[in-house]
Amino acid sequence: MPDASPPSSPSGNRVREVLATAVAALGGEERAGQVEMAEAVAEAMESGRHLLVQAGTGTGKSLGYLVPSLLHGRRVVVATATLALQHQLVERDLPRLAEAVGGAGVDAKYAVLKGRSNYACLHRIRAGVPDDQGALIEAPVGSLGQKVLELRAWAEEEAENGGTGERDRAPRHTDREWRQVSVGHRDCLGAARCPFGQECFVEVAREEAHQSHLVVTNHSLLAIDAIEGVPMIPDYDVVVIDEAHELVARVTQAATDELAVADVERAARRSQRHVDGDEADRLAESADALADAVAMASPGRFDTVPDQLAEALALVRDAARTCLSAYPRDSDGEADAGKTQAKGSVQEVFTTAERMAKDAESDVMWLSEGGDRFPPRLCVAPLEVWGPMREKLLSDKTVVMTSATLMLGGDFSAVASSVGLKPSERVVHGETVGEDVPDDALPWVGLDVGSPFDYGQQAILYVARHLPPPGRDGLGPAQVDEIVDLVDAVEGRTLGLFSSRRAAEAAAEVVRERLPHLTTLAQGDAQLPELAKQFVEDPHTCLFGTLSLWQGLDVPGETCQLVIIDRIPFPRPDDPLMSARQRAVEKAGGNGFMQVAATHAALLLAQGAGRLIRTTTDRGVVAVLDPRLATARYGGFLKAGLPPMWATTDPALVRKALGRLAGG
């Protein structure tokens, strides 16, 4: 359990004083919700109780946790889900905050930590890139080679000028191009053995983190450090998890492994020049057995792993283990990058094959569909993550989780349970809710500080109750007609959030055809930043897309006065992990649909609806084209997680309201 009384915790007066100084210096205005949040975060840090704080858009939640974090007596980690928020913290909020309060006896030194593959590798850049046999080669030819040379030149400039070497600062590139100038943790030689270890961007970032009071990182790196036990972050006392509605998905992603036949074949080829015996050949033979087994297996989740596949995985595991043992030991002072990276690829194959061969009840395994460009892959993910999170993070650190959407169905219980906190452990008015709370309980507080927005006056929630329920074949004629009527009424100004790329593209095609005087963009037409820029610059524009638009787009003002959601975003029935989790809940006597599918949908729905109102002057409509939000029994649970907008099912009334908005 976290230490109940960390040292040097700030008083409420001190928090309010520094927060007021910061807000004034940054040209903002005091918000009651922000003050309440800052005091609650400071109290959580002082008491060791975990805190879930829902802070609506416009609250200023970043300052609400950054100020008490800087005032805390020990190192604090801030973990975000998205690069956009990480950039906001590091490029805007923290520099301005440090300037405002750093001279007032506040340790405002901060650093950023990311996974190794997010930084350029000077050894790979200067010594070459290993080929499939593990031999070092120069940059590839053609357009790929030109881009790699450009990235190498950029990295050298970063090294010379004391830059960070981070991927986000690099010239525009693809994943394939970046892989030519970076390495994962298994391919790294290690700072002590690398001739460029002193200059290494990762080592420099880690050293800065060790010297800093506050470390900004991401959910995935936090999970690797705290849950998987791979030391990545300097010792810390408290972690603040922003965008906490994403935490379970990101932790799951970090703990998911994949294995393809090509991975085994590549590891065998790369081992050929480093292993003297027939061990690499045996690894290649195991890849053939795996290929046969995969060809015989059906895509989807395995309730029971087929015998042939189980035998092939055991064969790959054993062959990889034997191959690893056959690698010669490094001599003193030797730093053979080709051998290190070849051995790393075998180690990765072994680790994944071993996990899959165990077929543990705590894991879910499936075979992806594959396609023309992507062959099928075996995937394995944890059935749940709340257990490891409770045991390895919540029991050891004080955790503050914050987001604009943490209350589902009007309550914190769903989100708290998903991350490892029990509803019976919640503290209300100083007392835990449950009776006979055990000694190993993890007390937590849930707080909703509201929003500065008047949703009842600023926004309408329109549920198209008259439409037929959505079908499996995508958008029907009635839904398409509704979209065109709504977009026409507001003269563009529409963000369309769709459950599939196919639905988004189909809607965009029809709107272009029927409303040619408007500009209609679809996700995939260009890179997302370019689409967002065009959307912001011209109000008579529609932008239609899928999941990345549901959560990552911030477009205040008249640019976005209508958000269309085509259907309740339940997970697909054939989603291997979600269906397995739902079945596990039902097996334990719970309601799998409500605890898994409806909770997933409620979070996404709230995030999608949150795209509409971003400032106190924004006005608009959230239009849900799925009548089940009004007619189904679970509709009330989903609506309780949405901002308190004025609600209607009258299409004529909504079109008139949109027309008034368009008319200014």
From TrEMBL:
PROSITE patterns: HELICASE_ATP_BIND_2. Its EC number is 5.6.2.3. It comes from the Bacteria. InterPro entries: ATP-dep_Helicase_C, DEAD/DEAH_box_helicase_dom, DinG/Rad3-like, Helic_SF1/SF2_ATP-bd_DinG/Rad3, Helicase_ATP-bd, P-loop_NTPase. Keywords: ATP-binding, Helicase, Hydrolase, Nucleotide-binding. GO terms for molecular function: DNA helicase activity; hydrolase activity. It catalyses: ATP + H2O = ADP + phosphate + H(+). The keyword Hydrolase applies. Residues 20-295 form the Helicase ATP-binding domain. Its cofactor is [4Fe-4S] cluster. Pfam families: DEAD (PF00270), Helicase_C_2 (PF13307). PANTHER family: DNA REPAIR DEAD HELICASE RAD3/XP-D SUBFAMILY MEMBER, REGULATOR OF TELOMERE ELONGATION HELICASE 1. Belongs to the helicase family. DinG subfamily. This is DNA 5'-3' helicase. It comes from Nocardioides taihuensis.
